[in-house]
Amino acid sequence: MEDFFKRVQEHHNLKLPFVVYRKPNKSEVKAILQKSDELIFTSEFKEQGFVFSPFDNTEKSILIRLADAEVMSIENPILDTIKADPQKQTEASATEKQRHMFLVKKGINAIKEGLFKKVVLSRKESVTLENKDPISIFKRLLGKYASAFVYCWYHPEVGLWLGATPETLVKIEGNRFSIMALAGTQVYKNTLDVVWQDKEIQEQQYVTDFVVDSLKPSAESIKVSDTTTVKAGNLLHLKTMISAQLKPTANLKDVIYAIHPTPAVCGLPKKAAKDFILKEEDYNRSFYTGFLGELNLDAITSPRSGRRNIENRAYAITRKSTQLYVNLRCMQLVNDKANIYIGGGITESSNPEKEWEETVAKSLVMKSIL
Ligand SMILES: C=C(O[C@H]1C=CC=C(C(=O)O)[C@@H]1O)C(=O)O
After folding, report:
1. 93, part of any domain
2. Domain total for the chain?
């Protein structure tokens, strides 16, 4: 069993690209190990592999191509679990707080001036690592966040990223797909039965409405679920699922670029909010709030058991399956530091102090396993 992680470790020591990941609530951990150190991009999203995309949708998406890689998997590996030690969790400095609150105030003012309705503003926090071994950090993420998409991604020319994200960007199987609209945050206090303020309800509704509108050119039979409260680590969010069928004329690229970056990570209208983020956030988000996941992999589904035609039952159906996640609750390891990325949705009724506290609460998702 340890061989699995040893292989990944060796691959990393050889400075070869890889991704190792586990999907939400699954027991299988998968690794895709690229055989060369080539930096490969995708723009059409037609290949099979694992894609890693930045926030800025004008920048290139990186691909680990299935054809150039070895795939391994293991079920229920033994994991390191650690108890969070709040003493060890460094606090962000007063200057960082001031800087973030200033940015949030600027965002609120821009909304009041009518530049946009919502903007997601973020920051980066550096933590010095005691143990900088990415595989053991990855194992701790696996142990702690069963309902997240947990990953460790590496390319020698790009860097090493780890995360445990609660948010799916899009899942497509054949021509059916679903999209998650996740936004609004409060700290989990032992119950899912909570009251949401108008600010959070509105900020999440913006995301749902945007997704539905953006999908209209490429989708039909669009269905919207009820909005529910979901737990993600120490936090609660509001979630709505949108499902639909791809029009015969549409393709995956159209769907991805219609929705990414969604107002859950960018804002509304998309262009104005994105321009504001690129201009006013004083750092580069790079892959934070981008997306990542399996691209066009073969998924084998058994035919429906109710079918009359016996012959049909004998054959499983192979469909192309894509499962992309939004890169949230993530960090980049650089030398002996972890750069943790956190942000929150700002609307007209945001309170800068509360928005700061929200980023502090979100930073604990990563800090508590370091
Ligand atoms: C931008 C982040 O979260 C997004 C996802 C869920 C809730 C969010 C919020 O309440 O602001 C954000 O839209 C982040 O965690 O860095």
Report:
1. no
2. 1
Q: Is-contact 73 192, C-beta < 8 A?
A: no
Q: For residue 342, which of 151, 110, 82, 163 has the smallest C-alpha distance?
A: 163
From the CB of residue 296, how many other CB atoms can be counted at a distance below 10 Å?
18
Is residue 250 in a domain?
yes
Pairing of strands 61-65, 41-42: antiparallel
Contact 303, 313 (CB under 8 A): yes
Tokens in use for 161?
Answer: 């990223």
Q: How far apart are CA 252 and CA 127, in angstroms?
A: 37
Residue 22 Cβ inside 6 Å of ligand 1? The answer reads no
| Test site for ligand 1: of 100, 120, 355, most ligand atoms within 8 A of the Cβ | 120
- Residue nearest (by alpha carbon) to ligand 1 atom 1: 343
Which value, in Å, is the radius of gyration of the alpha carbons in the chain? Answer: 20
Ligand 1 atom 6: residue of nearest CA: 183
Which residue owns the Cα nearest ligand 1 atom 7?
Answer: 183
* Structural domain for 264, as ranges: 2-86+102-367
Q: ipTM for the complex?
A: 0.98
* Ligand 1 center to 314 CA (angstroms): 45
Cis status of the peptide bond prior to 269, with omega within 30 of 0: yes
Give pLDDT tens digits for 258-297. 999 999 999 999 999 999 999 999 899 999 999 999 999 9
Nearest residue to 84 via CA among 363, 330, 322: 363
Q: Which token pair is 263?
A: 């107002």
Q: Which two tokens stand for residue 172?
A: 């497509």
Which residue has the CA at smallest separation from atom 14 of ligand 1? Answer: 343
Single pTM value for the model:
0.94
